[in-house]
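ok, trying the design again with the full structure, not the truncated one.
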């Protein structure tokens, strides 16, 4: 037996009435009652500053926002998704769009205006800094690039009579600043390889020890906690370049470091579409000094870059996991090859290093790649590789290739690398 046809008892007048009960609202067309209730709820929220109870819900039912879970109980994968976002507000986006402003409206005294000029501050910077600070465990200051962040620490915190210990085999920009700008200001510079014992010995009498672990491009890894502790016992501040690890794999402030420096142009943002950097520190006074330095020299990022970075940060955990899967597969495949030597992988993150014996073979290998693109930098979603010694820093052998694993299929990347190795041998 089939159900009887539902009978339409409404009259034409009823139907006209039902139609006229739909009214234009801010989000399109809403039934009249719903629009009115939503607007009343929004007004109550605006005056009370928090989500209001819905009077249409039975007595005793609470619609208040639940108490926030303590961040420490949440996995990094969860924290990175919501890091730095403002509390939910009815009708607002999850991540506010970029604020493009040189001057802001700012009448009266400057203290009456939260923002008055773009070089001093911008709401987008603050949201991104909240996110980075929460992940690093400190106060974050965003800069126009990783080098602007490094320069702020080196030039603002060191002066005549100070001594810097810096790695000979880390990102070379730090050594360039030390040799070309710190030395002439009376700052002593002691250069050491990325090696625990060498750093601990050099820390005696130092004002600041600059550490990179894992180091770029050689991928050396330190016993970070012990080495930081030894440097601090020697009376030095410690800054750790955490670019390769990201706060999801290593949090130097928790390991005792005074400062964390990062090129956010790499994994942290991961889409190879922007240049950015930051410093985090547990010391609010140092954070203020760095922020004032940024204002003075104008090493501020653009609002759109910061917004792109904040948007990209949410996917850091999934990107990193896939990149590590690809990197581990490439590492395993390379270790089995007799025509590849000195295969390196720090055990996390995206970068694999290996030696192809000569610049000629390295160039032939790079030219034969198809899925993996030839490019500098690392940490992006596209697998890439380069002969690192083409920069002429002398930090690695002439046939050393640095490969950055992307988020493609591990099988496709491994097949591409093996094919290119065969073609270039
Ligand atoms: N630190 C490391 C480890 C780097 O690899 C880089 C750049 O490659 C930097 C700092 C400098 O960062 P940026 O290029 O964002 O200025």
């Amino acid at each position: 037996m089939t159900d009887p046809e539902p009978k339409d008892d409404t009259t034409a007048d009823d139907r006209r009435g039902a139609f006229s009960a739909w009214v234009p609202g801010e989000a399109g067309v809403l039934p009249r009652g719903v629009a009115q209730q939503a607007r009343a709820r929004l007004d109550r929220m605006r005056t009370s500053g928090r989500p209001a109870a819905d009077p249409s819900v039975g007595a005793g039912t609470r619609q208040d926002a639940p108490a926030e879970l303590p961040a420490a109980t949440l996995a990094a994968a969860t924290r990175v998704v919501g890091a730095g976002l403002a509390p939910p507000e009815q009708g607002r986006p999850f991540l506010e769009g970029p604020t493009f402003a040189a001057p802001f409206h700012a009448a009266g005294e400057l203290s009456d205006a939260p923002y008055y000029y773009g070089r001093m501050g911008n709401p987008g910077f603050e949201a991104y800094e909240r996110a980075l600070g929460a992940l690093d465990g400190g106060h974050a200051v965003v800069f126009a690039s990783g080098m602007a962040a490094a320069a702020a620490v080196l030039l603002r915190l060191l002066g005549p009579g100070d001594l810097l210990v810096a790695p000979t085999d880390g990102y070379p920009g730090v050594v360039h600043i030390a040799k070309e700008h710190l030395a002439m200001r009376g700052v002593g510079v002691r250069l050491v390889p990325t090696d625990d014992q060498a750093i601990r010995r050099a820390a005696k009498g130092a004002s600041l020890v600059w550490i990179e672990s894992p180091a770029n491009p050689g991928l050396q890894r330190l016993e970070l906690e012990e080495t930081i502790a030894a440097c601090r016992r020697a009376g030095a501040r410690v800054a750790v370049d955490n670019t390769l690890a990201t706060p999801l794999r290593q949090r130097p402030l928790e390991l005792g470091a005074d400062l964390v420096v990062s090129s956010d142009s790499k994994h942290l943002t991961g889409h190879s579409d922007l240049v950015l950097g930051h410093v985090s520190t547990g010391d609010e006074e140092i954070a203020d000094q760095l922020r004032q330095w940024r204002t003075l020299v104008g090493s501020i990022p653009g609002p759109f870059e910061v917004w792109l970075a904040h948007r990209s940060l949410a996917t850091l955990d999934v990107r990193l996991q896939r990149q590590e899967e690809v990197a581990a597969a490439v590492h395993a495949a390379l270790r089995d090859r007799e025509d590849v030597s000195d295969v390196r992988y720090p055990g996390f993150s995206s970068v694999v290093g290996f030696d192809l014996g000569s610049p000629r073979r390295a160039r032939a290998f790079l030219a034969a790649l198809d899925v993996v693109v030839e490019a500098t930098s690392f940490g992006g979603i596209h697998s890439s590789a380069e002969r690192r010694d083409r920069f002429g820093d002398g930090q690695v052998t002439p046939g050393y290739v640095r490969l950055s694993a992307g988020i493609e299929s591990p099988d496709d990347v491994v097949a591409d690398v093996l094919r290119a190795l065969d073609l270039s041998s």
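Keeping the full-length input from now on. The pocket of pyridoxal-5'-phosphate is lined by residues 145-147, 171, 173, 212, 216, 241, 243, 263, 265, 275, 277, 377 (CB under 6 Å).
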